[in-house]
Specification:
Strand content: over 45%
Shape: elongated
Number of helices: 3
Helix content: under 10%
Length: 524
């Protein structure tokens, strides 16, 4: 940007114009196409000239001087002609939707406008709902109002800058314009104050009555997961070069909302030497539901590092919910194994792991008397068949005794279980400078801490940390109550509550608290 440019500068010329969108051919259906390769040059046929490009070409084509100021000054005739052409298009287009865009040039008298904004439904609106937003304009003046244009003003981008054209309003006449707006599916709890900016061609005074609406967030899914790397090579459950594996991931929805399209991704974060056979899975996941996914992968001789790293991610794009973690597996020397058969029984409660080493992933716990089919001996570990698809496990041989029933049952150990956040407040609208927010974070495994941020765009407050509480030394490591007096600024305050069970596992809950602007008494 030029250092000479100033925000207060007004343009030399302004031209309103209709944005032209190419309509699909009748009887055809638009099809999605893959995005172009960034390295490919766009074909000439793919370039569509919009209004700005056409105007710029015509302006430059008629230029008689390379001087910028003289070029702008000489554009007056071109601007006047193009403005007149575009105005005719605008009048015709608005007439199609019942808006009289007649010009008031040369008219006398003054208009006076009473303007109200309403929504339907008027009560609490659930995320994902399509609502009607209506501007109603009554002219209480003695002369017509011309080219009345109302534009919604709100902190919420869903509504901000929505145009509601009214056009000509005669004295005593009331005119309305309604548009439909879809509240995003991932919208969060908030109160929206909707007002209007109203313009009339001759500057008529407008008295505006704003409106409020409350948006209720949709219930969110929360993804917990556990994983196990199953060795399809020498069978020792450890990572070596030149082997094939199956990464088995169990994903559970512990939230209250359904993930209509839960997406599970796996990405190679190691580099050379690791090959993924499958990296994406999509399915519906209801609250309490569990999905087991297998991702084939392999290592080869080009693996230079001593660690295999893959990044796992589960997300719901519609509701903007996700969890992710880098899964790390050390490259270790192989353990010689020997096949075995028969049954084994746990002498006492013991952990079961994914490989013949204490350093491998914990996949679950078995109780005293649990029985398994023995598959082999690997060093100090017995490889056993466990319940649930193609899973196997490794139990220290010293913890087992021969014989017994072979149920294969064990308690699955979840690798990541995000905390569940519950908040209590006095509503989502206040006139006070502070807001009392209380809540609880609970988890099946552990709650480490809770912290809160507040942001307010209109007051230039950006992610200000206003509360922190650790659970170290707490009475209950699985639950943490919190209470905070949050500072408020006028307008929409975005409150973000974060609860962590570890540095990589956390839950986030966001809400908006609306604070009314300070009102001062006006002189009689």
């Amino acid at each position: 940007m030029s250092t000479y440019a100033k925000d207060i500068d007004k343009p030399a010329h302004e031209i309103p114009f209709i944005v032209e969108r190419k309509a699909p051919t009748a009887g055809t259906t638009a099809t999605a196409t893959a995005p172009p390769d960034d390295d490919e040059e766009p074909a000439d046929d793919d370039v569509t000239e919009d209004f700005e490009m056409k105007f710029a070409k015509e302006l430059v084509a008629g230029a008689s001087t390379p001087n910028r100021n003289k070029l702008v000054a000489s554009a007056t005739k071109l601007v006047q002609r193009v403005r007149a052409e575009e105005e005719k298009k605008l009048v015709a287009a608005l007439a199609v939707i019942g808006v009289d865009w007649t010009s008031g040039d040369g008219a006398s008298g003054s208009a006076n406008l009473d303007v109200a904004l309403t929504t339907s439904p008027t009560a609490s609106i659930k995320a994902g709902t399509t609502i009607d937003v209506t501007a109603t304009v009554k002219n209480t003046g003695t002369a017509p109002a011309f080219r009345v244009l109302s534009r919604v003003h709100a902190d919420d981008n869903t509504f901000e800058d929505t145009e509601l054209p009214i056009g000509k309003v005669n004295p005593g006449e009331t005119r309305t314009y309604t548009t439909k707006i879809e509240v995003r599916k991932d919208a969060i709890d908030r109160v929206d104050r909707l007002s209007l900016e109203v313009r009339e061609q001759r500057g008529a005074i407008a008295k505006i009555v704003p409106t409020e609406l409350k948006i209720e967030a949709a219930p969110r899914p929360v993804f917990a997961y556990t994983y196990q790397l199953v060795d399809d090579g020498n069978g020792d459950g450890l990572v070596q070069r030149g082997e094939k594996y199956r990464l088995i991931v169990d994903v559970r929805n512990i939230g209250t909302g359904t993930a209509e399209k839960a997406t599970i991704l796996l990405r190679n974060a190691t580099g050379d030497g690791v090959v993924l056979g499958k990296s994406r899975f999509e399915d519906k996941l209801v609250p309490g539901g569990v999905k087991e996914i297998e991702f084939p992968l392999a290592t080869d001789a080009t693996l230079k590092t001593d660690e295999v790293i893959v990044e796992f991610m589960a997300y719901d794009e519609l509701l903007d919910v996700q969890t992710s973690q880098k899964l790390k597996f050390k490259v270790q020397p192989s353990v010689v194994g020997a096949l075995s058969t028969g049954a084994v029984t746990a002498k006492a409660p013991v952990a079961i792991r994914s490989g013949a080493s204490d350093g491998t992933t914990l996949i679950g716990n078995v109780g005293k008397g649990a029985g398994f089919a023995s598959l082999g001996q690997f060093g100090g570990y017995t490889k056993v068949k466990v319940a649930g698809g193609g899973k196997v496990g490794f139990i220290p041989t010293a913890s087992l005794t021969p014989g017994g029933a072979t149920t294969g049952a064990f308690a699955l150990a979840w690798s990541s279980v995000p905390p569940i956040i519950t908040v209590k407040g006095t509503g989502i609208q206040t006139s006070a400078d502070t807001y009392k927010l209380q809540g609880n974070a609970s988890a099946e495994q552990h709650v480490e801490d809770v912290y809160i941020y507040v942001s307010n765009r209109s007051s230039h407050i950006d992610s200000r940390k206003v509360f922190y509480r650790s659970n170290r030394g707490g009475k209950d490591g699985k639950s943490l109550d919190f209470a905070a007096d949050l500072p408020r600024w006028a307008g929409s305050n975005m409150v973000t509550v974060v609860a962590r069970s570890s540095t990589e596992t956390r839950s986030v809950q966001t809400m908006y608290i609306y604070k009314d602007a300070t009102r001062t008494a006006s002189k009689p």
